[in-house]
Design goal:
The protein is of the alpha+beta class. It has a single domain, classed as Cytochrome P450 (Cytochrome p450, Orthogonal Bundle). Helices cover 51% and strands 11% of the residues. It is built from 16 helices and 14 strands. A 5-stranded mixed sheet has the order 1-2-10-7-3. Strands 4-14-11 form a 3-stranded antiparallel sheet. A hairpin with a 2-residue loop joins β8 and β9. The termini are far apart.
Length: 400
Amino acid sequence: MVAVFDLQNIPANYLEDPYGVLAELREKSPVHKNPDGTFVLTAYNDIVQTYRDPLIWSSDKKAAFRPKFGDTPLFEHHTSSVVFIDPPDHTRIRQLFQSAFTRKALAAFVPRITNLVDEYLDRLEDQGQMEVVEEFSFRLPIEVVCDLLGVPRQDRELIRGWANAILTALEPTLTQIQFDDGNQAVTDFKQYLRDLITHRRAHPEGARDTEVLTVLADAEADGARLTEIELLHQCIFMLNAGHETSTNMISHGIHEMLRNPNQISLLSKDPDLIEPMVEEVLRYQAPIQINNRRATSDQILSGIVIPADTTVHMMINAANRDPGQFQEPDLFDITRRPNRHLSFGLGVHICAGNALARVEAQIAFQRLFHRFPKLALTSSAVIAQRLRFREVSSLHISVT
């Protein structure tokens, strides 16, 4: 199996349960050469090494994405957002965005998150059942990130459609329809944000206390502002990434806790386990499964030479279950400490919104399992056919 592993042509059963395939790959070929000349990394220490040195392992995707996207809106977006930029531009842009994620800004969101969660749980109590993704795990983070950027509530389904089309374009293979939809989504999203910024500047009195859109538009670092293109694409990225990761984290957390009711009992007895519980959910089912870097010079990982200008695929889902780092890695254990998973990245590119995502998850899980300690799965989670993102497309639960 390992000898013919191809990230562009994965086994039929891989998406449902990738962990057995990745465990064999990590054991037999932790730096595995893909048929296209790229390398698949599955060992924790190798992936940490690539994260830690952004000068050697570049996040810039211009060379990689040009053949895939050509001169298109998708190319503009995926080579302009902060996640795919190297220092010093990365440092400058990230500094401007830090205002959205200060402790003060996060504290201001806690009442809003709590009220939203309680609203969803009231509906669960009334109905006696819930489809988790549509009624809870998608709604919470999209409401929060849209509040952050001042997107009106009635427009949030638009955001979801655009986000899905743009992020789907990051999958290793694309259909023509997916390619066209992704490009149209970028174009529509940019124009929407231009109109939103214009409206907010004309009506600043309508902004929430937690809103940062005009702050970002006017912010300066060392006397320089974001260009319009930089601003638009960072906002698109925040709206996309700000709900994608959190939605999947909350969906998987509910699913894994209900599959392991003994863990619900542990949390009930010790509410302080909520923080390690969130970390274990992130480790066990990494919302983003793959990251990528390009070697700027010849490098060696696990004894294998990686030539300059070669792309490596960092399998976060494999690193998070490396037995060299995690004891009994296939066991879901909310008491696990330490838990140095890589689901939010590491180093200069660590997810800027990780603290907000953690707050969302802690409030969501704590209030759900405190109020409904005997929930039941109506059916197992349906896993979407996406390689880069570990997405739950549907999950049904009921109150018992």
